[in-house]
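Researcher: Please generate the 3D structure of the following complex. Treat every line as part of one assembly.
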Amino acid sequence: MIKKILDSSAAQWLDDRTHAVQYIRFHLIDYPTPKNLNYMYAFGSIALVVLILQVLTGLFLAMDYKAATLPTGNGFSLAFDSVERIMRDVNSGWLIRYMHAVGASAFFFVIYLHMARGLYYGSYKKPREFLWIMGVMILVIMQATVFFGYLLPWGQMSFWGATVITNIFGAIPVIGDWLLQLVRGGFSVGDPTLGRFFALHFLTPLLLVVVVLWHVMALHVVHSNNPTGVETSEKNIIPFHPYYTVKDLFGIGVFLIVYSYFVFFNPTGNGLIIEVNNFNPANPMHTPGDISPVWYLTPWYEILRSVPDKLLGIIGMGFAYVCLFLLPWLDRSPVRSARYRPVYRMMLIVFFAAIATLGYCGHHPVTPELTLVGRIASVVYFAFFFMLPFVHKFEKTKPLPEDL
Amino acid sequence: MKKIIMSFVLLLAMGGASGLSQAEESVALKSVDISLDRATLQKGLHVFTDVCMGCHSLRYITWKDLMDYPEIGLKREAVDELREDAPLNAPIKTSLSEAEAKENYGIVPPDLSLMARAREGKGAYIYSLLTGFAHDPKGRVEDGNYNIYFPGHRIAMGDPLGWLDHEPEDEQDLKQQARAVASFLTFVSDPHQLERQAIGKWVIIFLIVLTLVLWLLKRAVWSDVEH
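Model: Done. Output below.
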């Protein structure tokens, strides 16, 4: 049927004027793919689905949300009230809001797995360096987006999370104070902050969509890597449609089952997706005992917190991102896939464990033990990148297959 | 790849176990059977209007909602009796003014619309708090303001159900009242939760069937590829 539509004279008419059909053929149908891609390769398509869900649910939420901290009595505000109105009175508002909140966590979950796959199979190596860099850019934009978005309900964690994170800007020498006031629109987080964060929460997804499209277009220039990491011969290449459209659809189905479980049966994720304290309205006079960002930001937050000096902590956190950007040039081994790189494979396992540990520490209140664990994990995080340029010198790689 | 995922799960579990032991400093809450059936919710509503509403409001619930939410399903006459001269579409508000509250209790009592979600332990927290009044073992806090489950143990709210020094034969009744009001507040904190779960069951069933079909389709499409 798809073939029929694309071959129709109407499609031909459009194609003569816009190349629309050619684009569809090139990116969604004929795109040549190695035949051995496993299910780890479905997370790219899944992430695209989540992005679309987030844009659509966000659009409907924006129709009823009110970005104003105007007090409405007993500590509540217009913004907080409007979210509760969505949850209670807007038709299916609860569904849209929970889809959006669970979607944010799901997006990061999917993207982290997508990145882990790229790391494992060496998909960041030549000629895919820029693909990886765009991926890290996507991650950074996503993190900015959730940071802006989490302020909007104007709950306790919204307010204090934003206060803590914007404080980071204040520690920058010389321009820090000026920058802090620019970001907040005042001396403290308040109504101007909420207004600009709401506007920015619209802008950054727009950027995200642009970079994601660019990412997909670039992928279709350099083509997909595969679990063996070796170049594939013509006979092992199959077209994207119908093989991977249907395989990815199955992956999307499995994802949607898990996603729906959370949306319908555990929308707050036991405090991981929506923190318990965020059901209290923001109160600038009362600092909660335990302020931590949502789980997907905690690894980077913990690196920041591990350094005793605030400014050095910020530099450390920035450096953690710089390492990710530089990864394609830090790793000098000619072999891509960790399947054939025993040392790199071990390093990667330790690296993943360090990130999980950082995330765990960053999510919990500071104790001397956790601080120590966090510091060790931070060192392990950076050690991974410092070791990479040297590993290939002593690593005995396993023999590579000639073809898939 | 499988091995990696396994070792990952193991590491996470180890981290989780070691972290829990040191984070548990607050008193373990009493367990309670929260049930959102109509009888319990209506009983909880009455405990609320008789006792809690003396000081607390439900700003996100209107009198009309008590008829409109089928889970509560109050008749118009019953709502009229409860609301007295308050408008039908007005939120359920206490008659205690903020000024009076500050004078008598030192603070403005919090709104209870979201209380069952805004505290760790949810409904169990409310139940524990209401049945947690005791004599201060150190004798510092006055009777009626000492609560085992309140952070810091000193609470401005004075024993609303009369739990402290209750007669043994009243215990069951008090526990039932606390359970009912904890259930009611759990319901109003997220009034679409039962509807959500009811719909969710069908969504998941549909998605499982759809995914199975997609799996079969995938197998059929891939049957001509050697891999």
